[in-house]
Amino acid sequence: MRLHHLALRVANIDQTVTYYRDTFGLEVIRDERPRALWLELADGSLIMLETRGADEPGIPSGSKELVAFEVDAETKSRIRQRALDTGCFDGDTEHTVYLRDPDGRRLAVSTYPLKRPNTRP
Q1: Can you say how many angstroms the Cα of residue 78 is from the centroid of all Cα atoms in its chain?
Q2: Which domains are delineated in the chain?
Q3: Per-residue pLDDT, 58
């Protein structure tokens, strides 16, 4: 099993797509604004931004829920600087930089070396 897509409900799809495109360099591959928009990750999986309904709650302030993306050290450094420059930086550790998107969703880019078990002979 692997990730197919993440569907993120957002208050302002235009503001949010600009954030994800500019901060992470993600490409828009399907645009159905104002309802939805798809961004592609390097492995072919997707982030689907979907406009949140007026009756849906937003992200709780200070939430520690997290979506983390694997990156190389150069990309992590670039995104860290971008986060500092744009005011969305939310801390860092040796391997991981934390950010907040326009809805307050906590995101991260990480170089932490995951030890994945070899499931195939």
Answers
A1: 15
A2: 1-53 (3.30.720.120), 60-114 (3.10.180.10)
A3: 93
Q: What is the pLDDT of residue 116?
A: 73
The SS3 of residue 35 is: coil
- The phi and psi torsions of 105 (rounded to 5 degrees) equal -70, 135
- 56/61 Cα distance (integer angstroms): 15
Helix ranges (DSSP H) in the chain:
13-24, 73-86
Which residues in the chain come in under a pLDDT of 50?
none
> Structure tokens of 87?
């005011």
- What's the rounded Cα separation, in Å, for the pair 30 and 51? 14
pTM of the model: 0.89
Task: Look at residue 120 in the predicted model and tell me its pLDDT.
Answer: 55
